[in-house]
Amino acid sequence: MSVRRVLVVGGGIGGLSAAVALRRVGVEVDLIEKDAEWSVYGVGIIQPGNALRALDRLGLAEDCVVQGHPIVGMRRWSADGTTVLGETDFPPAVPGLPPNNGITRRRLHDILVAAADSAGAHVRTGVSATAVEQDSEGAHVGFSDGQHHSYDLVVGADGLYSRLREQIFGDDVKAKFTGQVAWRINLPRIPGLDRLWMYRGARGSAGFVPLAHDLMYMLTIEKVPDGAPVRLPREGLASEYRNRLAEYGGAVAEHRELVRDDAEVVYRPVENILLPAPWHRGRVLLIGDAAHGTSPHCGQGGAQAIEDGVVLAEEVATGLPIEQVLDGFMNRRFDRCKAIVEGSERIGSWEQDHTLDIDPDAVAYEVAVAAMAPL
Ligand SMILES: Cc1cc2nc3c(=O)[nH]c(=O)nc-3n(C[C@H](O)[C@H](O)[C@H](O)COP(=O)(O)OP(=O)(O)OC[C@H]3O[C@@H](n4cnc5c(N)ncnc54)[C@H](O)[C@@H]3O)c2cc1C
């Protein structure tokens, strides 16, 4: 094989999935994660059918389902919670598994870390890459812990604000603010909640996602109110989140009253990025949010990061020269990720301006179809 030794930079969903997938095809893998604590924020994630399909190829889908909660479809409500606007059932993606799954980020992280460990990836935390030099022999990397090693391929999975992207591709293409912000908090699950409930508001949407038999998260994606700052201090987040939920009725209004602890609220501006193809220069390839970070409207960012790892390992396993491996990866990944980033952005644009000629349900459907196309 042309790719026998790989460095993965970043131990998030994409980096860990790539490490597991590459180990499964016999590649030696070092993974570095800059955060010594390897902290994961405490909310949850939707795993759409294509995420379960990719995790199934890694042998991890069942673990996620056991530790998560099935999501069988979606119910859309008016903002005041008095009218059900529509209800859909999601089609099954993997026989024997639910169509979608909700899981806490911590549990998903633990599943991926255990899989990377048992597959034999060498993981170092609290470490970053300080220098990357390339020649015909390989990529030669210096690390913040003083080590130096050479690799056939360096995989940058260091997220939306990728340092490796800046080092290798320059800073012309950066994550951009979409105009919306996301609020999330974990709460006790509404009894019987087994599908996404989404409430359509004037400036965005709010909703619930089941995560475990006793847990769900409430999320809100909204346009920043006129005159309000985008960045907010941690102190006061709970009361600010309650204020932002004022337009909603029904179950959102009931659960709004449970938002009391600033430390439990996860708030962040929504940003996205689509790095033009190709996502590789020489022996450095970017995957996950570093290359194609999407707004969360279709629940696809983590799913695409997992798919990247699976597809990369399949291309490496062909044994073709590295240039063809990387071209094969791009051929399978670019259009799909582009459709997801751009489709999600269009839904967000419509949420911010309902006069735009965009049908958000039709776009969401198109994105779901693109995501479920064969890998
Ligand atoms: C509000 C919101 C809701 C979302 N909901 C969903 C959802 O329901 N379903 C879904 O599939 N996706 C969802 N996503 C998207 C998903 O979270 C991301 O797409 C996914 O986490 C990307 O994984 P990644 O591994 O590429 O990057 P990250 O998760 O950002 O991981 C990057 C890792 O690299 C490390 N790192 C950074 N710099 C360095 C460095 N220099 N050296 C070493 N390590 C470094 C970081 O510490 C981190 O551990 C959502 C995103 C948001 C913002």
Automatic annotation (TrEMBL):
Coiled coil: none
Pfam family, one: FAD_binding_3
Domain FAD-binding: 5-342
Keywords associated with the record: Monooxygenase, Oxidoreductase
One Gene Ontology term of the molecular function aspect: FAD binding
Cross-referenced PANTHER family: MONOOXYGENASE, PUTATIVE (AFU_ORTHOLOGUE AFUA_6G14510)-RELATED
Record-linked NCBIfam families: PRK06847.1
Record protein name field: 2-polyprenyl-6-methoxyphenol hydroxylase-like FAD-dependent oxidoreductase
Organism: Saccharopolyspora dendranthemae
